[in-house]
Amino acid sequence: MNFIGAYTWEHIRFMLTGLGITLQVALIAIVFSFIIGCFLGIIRYTKLPVISQLTAAVVEIIRNLPLLLIIFFTFFALPEIGIKLSVMNAAIVALTVFEAAMIAEIVRSGLNSIDKGQIEAARSSGLTYLQTLQHIVLPQALRRMVPPMVSQFISLLKDTSLAVVISLGELMHNAQIINGQDVNFVVPILLLAAVMYFIVNFALSLLARRLEARQV
Question: Which residue range or ranges hold the ABC transmembrane type-1 domain (predicted)?
Fold first, then answer.
């Protein structure tokens, strides 16, 4: 092991660049998966004829597929039907699709956790179904969803490492490039990558715990 040779400023800067790409991809995927996941979760909760069943089927199919398969599909299969994406965009689309399905289930479960008595009371007081959903159900459900959503976003951040298979220049990709220079760099560089992942994910974990504690 060569810690001195591995931890040069050039290598550390290269690793930080990879971490920046990781965070960028994760942040974009988090935003889009949250929006899409909330929309799909609400559709499932409303139990609209046909639409809810189709949405549920799509969500369940995606949730039960390996993320790696979805990444391969977006980067290698979509060009076959005329949809060519850059490496970064393919990673973002794959992560968004996969995480949106996970968020949809969190949203559906959160909405279902609201006491039915509150819904019946709201409806009997004259509120429409949409007004009940907007003013009674969603505000309470969103507070309950925050901790599991943060945990899911932590998983998303870690899952960005799978994009190494399509050569996205994220943290693990850059670590592999440095490791290829000298076999003695492998342990030091992997330890550095582990520390970087830990710092970011531990910070998010603390946030999730604090938000969860506030719900008690």
Answer: 19-208
